[in-house]
Amino acid sequence: MDQASPQAVLLEKLAANPLSRTGGIALYWQCSELLKRLIEESHYPAAVPLPAENELAKALGVSRPTLRQAMARLASDGIIHSQRGVGAFALRSGLVRPVGLSSLYRDLADAGQVPTTKVLVLEQVNAEPTVAAELHIPVGTPLLHIERVRFADGTPVVVTRSLLALPDGVTLTREQLESDGLYNLLRRVASIELVGGSQTVSARHATAAEAELLDLPSDSAVMVAHRVTFDSRGNGIEYVHIIYPGGTELSSDLRGTSTHAAEVEARR
């Protein structure tokens, strides 16, 4: 059985908690309090858009103007963040805000460098529990496992290990992955637009294999970014670990825009 999306679960819980029409408490206030409680209790993913206004209003049994008052209060209290053209997102302490996403492939090209890619692994696997939980998909869901090395002007700058939850019938070829950026391929091949994600970055020593791939001395330090990204419908699409060599500078656009502003730039 398919696992319900965070949006569907939230709507179901809202409908199961009817508002009081007596007692003198304004409906918009009740809406905002209920939404706040359910967002916090369910640990609603920061990168997944909340349901649309009309869906929220229907589930709550209120008018859209009343719903907008509630959303305005939540925004003022720092519970949600509105992203023009995409929707509203839940904000929670310690989580990355929705960010504009772009691929390293295009960032390098825009910087005047020549990006090339070598695909090391391209295979179908099934989602393990940890991955399934982060992508909000059922355990065992078919995923496309990709491991790549990206080069800039012939110098290795990053190793990526990705797991992609693609629509039925959609796949990517080695030739496609070695000639274009992943996010552009997702838009072009699968009509998938990634609008947000959460990311953590840590440092550790490179494994022997990573040091060889990145042309580093053994036991060199590397930075590892773990990212999970979602599309505009709230579907978990990408679970990835990105390994950068020491000396790499990471910069993130945290303005919550779905434009193609660069999220990551790698320099050596």
Keyword list:
268 residues; alpha+beta; Arc Repressor Mutant, subunit A; Chorismate lyase; two-stranded antiparallel sheet; 9 helices; disordered C terminus
Could you give the topology of this structure?
Blueprint: H1 6-15, H2 27-41, H3 53-60, H4 64-76, E1 80-83, E2 87-90, H5 104-110, E3 115-126, H6 129-135, E4 142-152, E5 155-164, H7 174-177, H8 182-190, E6 194-205, H9 208-213, E7 221-231, E8 236-245
Antiparallel strand pairs: 1-2, 3-4, 4-5, 5-8, 6-7, 7-8
Keywords: DNA-binding, Transcription, Transcription regulation
GO molecular function: DNA binding; DNA-binding transcription factor activity
Domain HTH gntR-type: 25-93
Structure description:
With 268 residues, this protein is of the alpha+beta class. The protein has 2 domains: 6-90, Winged helix-like DNA-binding domain superfamily/Winged helix DNA-binding domain (Arc Repressor Mutant, subunit A), CATH 1.10.10; 104-245, 3-Layer(aba) Sandwich (Chorismate lyase). The chain has 9 helices and 8 strands. A hairpin with a 4-residue loop joins strand 7 and strand 8. The chain is elongated, with a radius of gyration of 21 Å. The model is unreliable at 92-100 and 253-268 (pLDDT under 50).
